Amino acid sequence: MNTAQLLAADLVLAVAAAATWTAAAWQTVSATSPRRPRLPLAADDGPTVGNRPVTAGPAVGAAPTAANRPVDIALLLTAAAVIATTARYALLPALAAGGWWFANERITVSLPLTALPAAWAAMAGVPYLLRRRNTGSDSHEGAAPPAIDGTPGKEAAVLSLTAAAASALASLAVILVLGPFPAPWTVVVLLLLTAGVVLLVRLALFSGTSRKKNTGLAANPSAGRPVGARRGLGWGGFGRRGRPKPAAALAGLMACTLLGSGVFAWLGSRSADGAVIAAAVGHHDGGTAPTVVGPTPVTALLGNAPTDAVVRRYEVTARTETVTLPSGQSTEAWTFGSLPGPALEADLGDVMEVELKNRDVAAGVTLHWHGYDVPNAMDGVAGATQDAVAPGKSMTYRFVAAQPGTYWYHTHQDSAEGVRKGLYGTFVVHDPTLPRADKDIVVAGHDLDGLGMLGSSDRTSEHGAVPGSTVRVRLINTDSLPQRYLLEGTAFKVSAVDGTAVNQPPDVSGKLLRIGAGGRIDIDFTMPAAAVTIRSDSAASAAVVVSPGPPAGSPPGEPAGSPPGQPAAGQPAEAIPASVFSTTPVLDLLHYGVPAADAKTIPDITREEVVVLDRQFRFVDGVPRYAFTVNGAAYPLVPAMEVAMGDTVKVTVVNRTAEPHPMHPHGHHVRVLSRNGQAPTGSALHLDTVDVQPGEVWELLLEANNPGIWMDHCHNLEHAAEGMMMLLKYEGVSSPFVHGGHANNRPE
User: Fold this and answer.
1) Which of 24, 177, 25, 201 minimizes the C-alpha distance to 110?
2) Staple partner for 571: which of 98, 536, 567, 695, CB 3.0–4.6 Å?
3) CB 39: neighbour CB atoms within 10 A?
4) Residues 206, 207, 212, 216: is their CA dihedral positive or negative?
5) 550 cis-preceded (ω within 30 degrees of 0)
6) H or E element: which one contains 82?
C-alpha cells in the first residue's frame, strides 16, 4: 500500500474503532441492566420465597439462549473494537516509513491516547461479559463459581468500555479536527473532555452502588425489588435525587467547552470577511533587502516598461451567453467572447496592454495571468491585488512580456465557478531569437459542465501540416482535475514544461503525458506521412488530428482532409479502450532530459517553510465544511508565508489527503529539489503549478525576487474555494483590498 492508501485505511479503522467501542459500551449497559420484575405468580405457578417467585438461573456452561443474546452482541462489538484498534497500531510502522509528516500525531497523540483505555477495556470488559454470558450474574453470589471470584464487576467493565470509546472518538477528532502537529493545549482539552465523559458515566450510573450492596427484599420484602438488586445501574438512575448535581455540572462544562470552541471558530471565520491584509513587517535573517520603514501598497508595484517597446493591445469582454458546441449540445456559460477566450500572443520584450470589460457577469471578474510572473499590481486576484470588476466596469492590465512560453489567463474572482463556466483563454509568448515551428497548435483541455473539450471543440478538430515539417502542440490543462494525453502516430519530444524549456529532451513514444490542473506541456514532432492524433482522458469524444497536407491549391495551413480510418472534423472521435489510459505508463518528468551544467548549483537557503495539505472540519466563511486546509486552517485564516526580498526559501509541501493538489504560487516559478526524497535526474524542473499527488512530499526552492502579496493555492479550484489557499507576503508590502467587503471579493 502507498502512503495515501495507508492514510485512508487508518481513517476507516479510526471510524470503525470509535463506532464499535461506543456501541460496545452502550450494548453492555443495555444488556446487563436489571430488568423490571415480573408480576407475582399464582400460588400454583411455582416455588416462592415470601412474596417472591424463585427462578433458576442458567447453569454454568449452558448453551446460549435468547436471554443472553444481547451479551453476545456486546462481546462481538468489543472484539471488533479490539481488532480495529490493533489494526491501527499495525499500520503505524508503515505510515512512519512514508514520513514523519504522516505518522506524527498518530504516534505522539493517538497511540498513547487509545492504547491504555483499549487494554483496560479488553481486560475488564471481556471477562465481565463472558461471566455474565455463562452465569447470568452480576455478582459473585449464587451461580457464580469460585473460580471467577477475581473477575471485574460491571462498574469496571462499563467504565473501561466508556474510556475506550471516548479515547477512540478523541483520536478521530485529532485526525478530523486538530490535524497534524496539534497545539499542546488542544491535546490537554481533548484529554480533559475524554476523562470528563468517563466521570460523567460514573456519576450517572454508579454513584450509589457502593452503598447497601445487598439491600433488597431481604430487608424489606414489600419493596418489590429482587434481593441483591443494586440501585442506579440503569440509565434511568441519572434522575436519582442528589445525583444530577455533579453529573449535570460536568456535562454542562463539557457542553460549554465544545459550544465555546465552535462559536470562536465561527466568529473567526466571519471576522475574516472584510479584513484588511496586514503587511509583513518583520525582518528575516538572510534576506539581502534592508528593513522597510513604511509599507508599499500592491497598487504601486507596476513594474517598468520600456518606452520604445512594441505594445500589444487586446480587449476582452466577459459576458454570459448560451454556447452551442460542435456536437450540437448547448450550455449556459460565462465567456470572454469565445471558448477559449481570445488567443493572446506577444514576442519577448513586447508590452501587453489588455482591457478587461465586464458586460453582465454579476459575480464580477478579473484577469489572472497563470504562470506569468507579472508585477504584483497586475496579478488579478480579487481581494489581494484589486477589487473584482463589476458589471459595466473595466480595468486595464499592462506588463512586459518578459518570459517566453505557454501560459493562460482566467478570472480570479469566484473562479471555482467562473473558470469552470468558461472565463479562460490562452496566452503565448514567442522568443524571436529562436526558430519557430512550422505549425504551432494551442490546445486547451477543458470540461464545460460535463462536456469535454480540446480547444474549442468537443468533437474532432483537424489541422494540416506538410510531411517533414516541424509541429509544436501546446497542451494546457484549464480544468480543475489532472488530464492525461495520448499522442498516436509518431514519437515526440517534451520541449517545455510550465513555460520553461527542457534541456536536451529525448524522443518519447508509448507513454502518456500527465498534466496537473493549471499545468502546461509543449511537445514537438516532425510531421510524418500519416496523421497524428492527440486524445485526452478528460474528453472522450474530442480529438486533435494533425493531417498530412495541405493538398495542392489549398490555402496555407488548411488540412488535406480526413485520412482513411480517421473521423472527419466535427465528428465524434474514434472510441478507444478505456484501459489504454489506465495501463499505458506516464512519462516521469523528474527523470526526463539532461541536467544543465549548472543544475547542481543551489543558492544558500535562508528560510525553510512547511506546507501541510490536509482535510479537517472547519468553518469557511461562516459555513461548517469538511474543508481542505493548509497547515490546519482554511483561507482566509491560514497564516501567511512571510519573506523578504532576496530570501531563498526551501518549501516542503506534504499532501496528507487522498486527492491530488496542484499547488500554484503566483508570481514565481519554483525549482523542484526532490519528490518523496528523490532528486531529479533529468533536466531541472522549474514549475509554477506543482501537482502534489496523495501521500507525496515535495521539496521546492523559491527565490523571493518579485515583491508583493501573492496567492498560493490548490488549482483544483473547488479545493481552493473550500479553504486550500494561503498568501506569500513580502516584507513591507500592504494591500488596501479586502476579502469580501463592498466589492464582494472572492478570490476562489
Assistant:
1) 177
2) 567
3) 7
4) negative
5) yes
6) helix 69-98
Q: What is the pLDDT of residue 65?
A: 59
Q: Which three cell numbers stand for residue 48?
A: 416462592
Contact 51, 246 (CB under 8 A): no
What are the backbone angles phi and psi of residue 258, rounded to the nearest 5°? -65, -45
Do the Cβ atoms of 741 and 274 come closer than 8 Å? yes
> What pLDDT is stored for residue 315 in this prediction?
97
**Amino acid sitting at position 383:** G
What is the pLDDT confidence band of residue 78, given thresholds at 50, 70 and 90? very high
- Return the closest-CA partner of residue 227 out of 363, 49, 429: 49
Residues pairing with 513 in the sheet: 485
Query: For residues 527 and 546, is the Cβ–Cβ distance under 8 A?
Result: yes
Which residues have CB under 8 Å from 341's CB, separation 6+?
A: 316, 335, 409, 423, 424, 425, 426
Burial class (CB in 10 A: 0-12, 13-18, 19+), 275: middle
* φ, ψ dihedrals at 357, nearest 5°: -120, 140
Measured distance CA(661)–CA(681) in Å, rounded: 23
- Please report, as a single letter, which amino acid is at residue 8: A
Q: What is the pLDDT of residues 486-517, one digit of tens each?
A: 999 999 999 999 999 999 999 999 999 999 99
How far apart are the C-alpha atoms of 175 and 8, rounded to whole Å?
11
Provide the residue type at 223 as one letter.
A
Q: Which helix (H) or strand (E) holds 729?
A: strand 725-730
Residue 368: count other Cβ atoms within 10 Å of its Cβ.
Answer: 27
Cα separation, 688 vs 427, in Å, equals 15
Q: Are 348 and 401 in contact (CB under 8 A)?
A: yes
C-beta separation of 631 from 656 below 8 A: no
Mean pLDDT calculated for residue range 84-108: 91
Instruction: Tell me the C-alpha distance between 29 and 18, whole Å.
Output: 17
Q: How many CB atoms lie within 10 A of CB 652?
A: 17
pLDDT mean across residues, the chain: 85
> Which 3 state secondary structure label does DSSP give 307?
coil
Query: Residue 73: which residues within 8 A CB-CB, separation 6 or more?
Result: 27, 31
445 vs 516: CA distance, rounded Å: 11
568 burial (CB, 10 Å; 0-12 / 13-18 / 19+) is exposed
SS3 679: coil
Rounded distance, CA 565 to CA 188, Å?
69
The burial class, CB within 10 Å (0-12 / 13-18 / 19+), for 589 is buried
| Calpha distance 142→148 (Å, rounded) | 12
Distances (CA, A) of 199 to 172, 185, 190, 207, 556: 20, 21, 14, 10, 84
Q: 350 with 309: CB under 8 angstroms?
A: yes
The answer to whether the CB of 381 falls within 8 A of the CB of 412 is yes
Question: Which residues are CB-contacts of 122 (< 8 A; sequence separation ≥ 6)?
Answer: 78, 82
As given in the structure block, the three cell numbers for residue 741 are: 467587503
Residue 142 has pLDDT above 60, yes or no: no
pTM above 0.70, yes or no: yes
**What is the number of residues in the chain?**
748
Query: DSSP strand E in 37-176: where?
Result: 48-49, 52-53
| Grid coordinates belonging to 172 | 478521530
Q: How far apart are CA 580 and CA 578, in angstroms?
A: 5
Is residue 562 scored above 80 in pLDDT? no
State phi, psi for 691 to the nearest 5 degrees.
-85, 90
Q: How does pLDDT run across 418-456, given as a tens digit for each residue?
A: 999 999 999 999 999 999 999 999 999 999 988 999 999
Which cell numbers hold the place of 147? 473460580
Q: Is 428 helix (H, G, I), strand (E, B) or coil?
A: strand
Burial (CB count within 10 angstroms: exposed 0-12, middle 13-18, buried 19+), residue 603: exposed
Q: Which three cell numbers stand for residue 723?
A: 479553504
Q: What share of the chain is helix, strand, coil (3-state, %, to 5)?
A: 30, 30, 45
- Is the torsion defined by CA of 148, 150, 154, 157 positive or negative? negative
Closest Cα to residue 203, out of 229, 169, 237, 228?
Answer: 237
